[in-house]
Structure of Histidine kinase:
Amino acid sequence: MRKIGGHIVFWLLYISFTVAIYYVKEPSFLLHLTYELASLPAKLFIVYFTLYFILPKYLLNKKYGLATMLFLVVLVMAVLLLQLSVSVIVYPIYYSEVAITFVPNNLEKLVSPLLDLIIVSSLAVVIKLLRDRELQERSRLQLEKMNVQNKLQLLKSQLHPHFLFNTLNGLYACTLENPLEASKIVIRLSDLLRFIIYEGDQPLVPLKDELDALENYVELEKIRYGEKMQAKWTVTGEAGNKKIVPLLMLPFVENAFKHGPAKISSNSWVSCDIGIEDRYLVMKLGNSKTGDELPKIRHGIGLNNVQQRLKHNYEGKYELTIDDQPKQFLVFLKIPLKVL
């Protein structure tokens, strides 16, 4: 229906424009309007035959010779149809004294309808090509958007099982050593999984919920490692009504425990300091590590994925510094917050 409306608007504008042009030359509105309405069948014939037959079958397939020949044949037919319509409708009303001839008997009567038909058909082809190009560009952009969204979903699907595997390992170990503490793990893990499942696919989540999820994870790991590890978790500033892209910080925190306490038998440490500023969040994260962990940390699945998500969501607006040292691994992350 919208397409039909577009065609109607095109013809109304075209008729209005041509009537106005001819009116300047000869101020007789009804004459020019009658002429345009009488010539409309011929113009409809050549325009739509060109648009839906010559253009797709020949021009777009680069068969220019056949397209030109066929267009000339259609043009001659349209001229004869136009002359017939004008002779039957216009001449009896406005030029009754002139003898009716279906074939133009002078050059002016031949050139004028030829140009009229060529102009309207060319205009329609140009509009059609521009419209098709616009639709193709929209389709391409939509496809690119879908590809990006699918890629992000894939990154998240890689991230979640990776995190869950490590956490369940911790739960299993704690169940064997301290069943009472295991119940606390189940509660925190339930809250954490609820956040990942129901909030993790949202474009933005409340900052407070994101920080609660991080704290749950840190507490789970503190229970798991006990006195073997020193963990520091501090948050300064107010979350308020700020929002953030979910699950961007969790892979870094997870990585700190994976390559810190998990690899060092004693005296390991993890420190996470989060500062909430007016429109930014700053995370300073560090963990102890053994020297042989240096080649591995930078290329973990979780960290690679989260760096791609950071680039997609905050291109040019975030800061990320990763400092691998022989005995410690440091992360500095600064990302903008959405303030409601």
